[in-house]
Amino acid sequence: MKSILISYDMRKGMKQNPRRIQFTKGLYGYFYEWETKSGRMRKRKTGILDSLKWYDKVGESTILLENIQEKDFEKLMAYFQSYSDVIYARAFKIAQEVPLYDTKVDL
């Protein structure tokens, strides 16, 4: 599969729904800490994007996925679908990468 750009909007769940925080933590992962007798411990809980080979967070709510496999994309879309009550998401397939200085672009 080619490169995919995923853009999501959480305004749908911004009012009072705490599931938007669960969505973000499940997508990117998070660190958590606790106290022990020997001191403070810290551990990282992985997110769904950690299992993918290459991704880049391009903006506040935009992810670029390079060379994603079909099964990984389906898994990611199922995750987004499970939070459809909180977010609105769109995926775009990138057909051609064009350098900004290149003036000969085939549209």
Brief digest:
By secondary structure, this protein is an alpha+beta fold.
Describe this structure in words.
The protein has 107 residues and is of the alpha+beta class. It has one domain (4-93). It has helices at 19-28, 70-82, and strands at residues 4-9, 30-36, 39-45, 55-59, 62-65, 88-93. The strands form two sheets. The chain has a four-stranded antiparallel sheet with strand order 4-5-1-6, with no helix packed on it. The chain has a two-stranded antiparallel ribbon with strand order 2-3. The longest helix has 13 residues, at 70-82. The two termini are 21 Å apart.
Summary keywords:
alpha+beta; 6 strands; 107 residues; four-stranded antiparallel β-sheet
Secondary structure topology:
Blueprint: E1 4-9, H1 19-28, E2 30-36, E3 39-45, E4 55-59, E5 62-65, H2 70-82, E6 88-93
Antiparallel strand pairs: 1-5, 1-6, 2-3, 4-5
